[in-house]
Amino acid sequence: MSECEGTYRTTAEFYDILQAERDSRLVARLYGARVAAARGAVVDVGAGSGAVSFLALTASGVPVHAVEPSAVMRSLLLTRLARCGADRRARVTVHPGTLPEADITAGEAELVVCHNVVPTLDGAARRALWEAAARVLGPGGLLLMDRPRARAPREAEVTAFTPVRVGADTYEGEVRETACAEGAELAFTYTVRRGERVVRRRGERFLTRMLPLEALAEELGECGLRWEETGERVLVARRAGAG
Ligand SMILES: C[S@@+](CC[C@H](N)C(=O)[O-])C[C@H]1O[C@@H](n2cnc3c(N)ncnc32)[C@H](O)[C@@H]1O
User: What pLDDT shows up at residue 1?
Assistant: First the structure.
């Protein structure tokens, strides 16, 4: 099983406090209509703390598979599941590895959603993901993802999260994106302040790959997933075999 014990170790602590609210609004906007209309299982690849899985649990009545290799990120997900009610919890299976390793019945899924995960994968991991997605999707089933960046930024780009107050402290975070040989490096910095004083500061870096649409569509096509132009921000690929 591909447990990644190291990655997200720093980020996990700050993930939901800084990002969960914004992310759940975003995933509802991007995937909500298709998830609500699903009649077959929804697979959430790189589930993290479960933004897409919880969308599926609330907007649909279908089985949900949350696939998450990082133990610290799974902890966030399972803590949320512990509080969500037994009936909803009974509908979601948590898979502690990658999609190729997950025990999901072939053809069971109507949707495989990869939100905010694909650019972090290298070519071999992407290929394994597309093959596994094509296996678990039923005929006509859809692979959905947020469109990866095609080009690295020319200059460093810094994005700040909205600060969040927790008791006497304010939690802040920013991500600095800079071009590097493989694509772009994302350097996250998390700061906890009490008044003017910095109580803690932590950082974690991630490598992301640039994936132009044509190259991605070709990769998907080689694995039986046909890219569809929808004009949406979401990238849609249909499992070949039915319309
Ligand atoms: C940036 S987080 C996004 C989490 C969640 N999808 C969200 O939008 O909040 C990326 C997640 O993908 C997971 N991940 C990394 N490699 C993966 C792989 N090969 N298969 C599935 N998930 C993976 C990481 O552990 C991490 O939890």
Answer: 61
8 C-alpha to ligand 1 centroid (Å): 9
Find the 111 Cα to ligand 1 centroid distance in Å: 17
Q: What is the CATH number of the domain that holds 33?
A: 3.40.50.150
Whether 6 is in a domain gets the answer no
**What value does the mean pLDDT take over residues 35-46?**
98
Q: Which of 117, 122, 129, 144 to mutate to test the pocket of ligand 1 (most atoms within 8 A of CB)?
A: 117
Q: Tell me the pLDDT of the chain averaged across its residues.
A: 95
- Report the DSSP pairing between strands 64-67 and 157-160: unpaired
Measure the CA dihedral 98/99/103/109, to 10°.
Answer: 150
Residues with CB under 6 A from ligand 1: 4, 8, 23, 45-48, 51-52, 67-70, 73, 98-99, 115-117, 120-121, 125
pLDDT average, residue stretch 189-215: 97
Do 228 and 134 belong together in one domain? yes
CATH number, domain of 199, equals 2.20.130
Q: In which domain, by residue range, is 99 found?
A: 11-148+212-239
242 has a pLDDT exceeding 70: no
Give the torsion through C-alpha atoms of 95, 96, 102, 105, to 10 deg.
-20
